[in-house]
Write a structure and sequence with these properties.
With about 110 residues, the chain is an all-beta fold. The chain has one domain: Immunoglobulins (Immunoglobulin-like), CATH 2.60.40.10. Helices cover about 0% and strands about 45% of the residues. The chain has no helices and seven strands. It has a four-stranded antiparallel β-sheet with strand order 4-3-6-7, with no helix packed on it. A three-stranded antiparallel β-sheet has the order 1-2-5, with no helix packed on it. A hairpin with a 2-residue loop joins strand 3 and strand 4. It is elongated, with a radius of gyration of 17 Å.
């Protein structure tokens, strides 16, 4: 039986991981990013605020990007950075946390060719 992940993360590495060259790391987080200003279907009550507050991307456990997001970011945020491939390759990991305490994490191996 499959489990339902309410906030899936898609972590992609684009490019050929050659030592010293850059690859693009893309992170797509499935999250509603509700501002707290939209009205619900009944037109009377607001949909509660629910936004991702922080995202950290790490290479081999060393932070390489940290972002504080706000209400101006669209639903299902897509972040993209370029990373220089280290000689030994490594692991890219992403962690996020929203204002309701929900967290997510994903990681992917950069295998040097």
């Amino acid at each position: 039986m499959a489990t339902l992940n309410l906030h899936p993360i898609r972590l992609s590495i684009l490019g050929t991981p050659l030592v010293g060259q850059e690859v693009e790391v893309r992170v797509l987080i499935g999250h509603p990013m509700e501002t707290g200003y939209r009205l619900g279907l009944d037109g009377n009550e607001r949909i509660p605020k629910n936004i991702i507050e922080s995202v950290i991307i790490k290479l081999n456990q060393d932070p390489i990007m940290q972002a504080t997001l706000g209400t101006g970011i669209a639903a299902n945020p897509l972040l993209s950075i370029f990373v220089k491939v280290p000689p030994q390759g490594g692991v890219i990991s992403v962690e996020w946390r929203d204002d309701q305490g929900v967290q997510g994490r994903a990681e992917k191996l950069i295998a040097v060719t």
